[in-house]
Design goal:
Chain lengths: 68, 134
């Protein structure tokens, strides 16, 4: 392999980032009872919090207290 | 001797390196136009959540028309999947209505409340905005 042709890995990442397209999407998962599901109830992204109902937020507080 | 031959050969070996490019607005718009044309080939398209083995976890059909602005492509409204197949999300795909993949992305690149989806769960999505490479 000709080492002169290899790109610095960090530079490769930068180039890949510059060439990539991007998406913006917020997805909410609910169980069959309609309750929201969270990978980590103690670290819910703001974008998810923004789409939760008051009932959802109360349920989230319950999950947090159970996790303590 | 061998080193000399190797050095001579190196002169004729193509140097493969890639460098960042910048697309002007018209080009980015054309990319979005091309993407939406592929998605719209058989309807408004659909979003699927898939496992590492590419098995379908949930499918959200796009219910209204997709539209391209100056550069960005905004997808139409997604119908909830109210009875997911279930699984652990490895990637998401935008497909046309016959299931042909147009592009994919990772759950780490979006905001999703849970990547573990049970059978019978409901998956809801906000609007999806696609930005072509800058």
């Amino acid at each position: 392999m000709n080492k002169n042709t290899e790109m610095n890995p960090e530079l490769s990442k930068l180039v890949a980032a510059a060439q990539d397209g991007e998406v913006h999407l917020v997805a909410l998962v609910r169980d069959p009872q309609g309750r929201p599901k969270f990978d980590d109830p103690n670290n819910v992204p703001q974008a998810i919090l923004d789409v939760l109902t008051e009932d959802d937020l109360r349920y989230l507080e319950t999950l947090k207290s159970e996790a303590l | 001797m061998l080193q000399s031959i190797f050095n001579t050969l190196k002169l004729f070996m193509p140097k493969v390196a890639f460098y960042a490019v910048t697309h002007v607005v018209a080009t980015r718009n054309a990319i979005s136009d091309a993407v939406v044309a592929l998605v719209n080939a058989t309807g408004n398209g659909q979003l699927t959540l898939r496992t590492v083995a590419d098995a379908e976890i949930a499918t959200l059909t796009i219910n209204t028309a997709n539209s391209v602005g100056a550069t960005d492509l905004t997808f139409g409204d997604f119908l909830d999947d109210t009875n997911a197949t279930g699984g652990t999300v490895d990637h998401l795909r935008i497909e046309n209505n016959t299931g042909t993949e147009i592009f994919r992305f990772l759950p780490t690149d979006i905001t999703i409340s849970s990547t573990v989806i049970g059978a019978g769960d409901t998956v809801q999505c906000s609007s999806l905005i696609y930005q072509p490479p800058a």
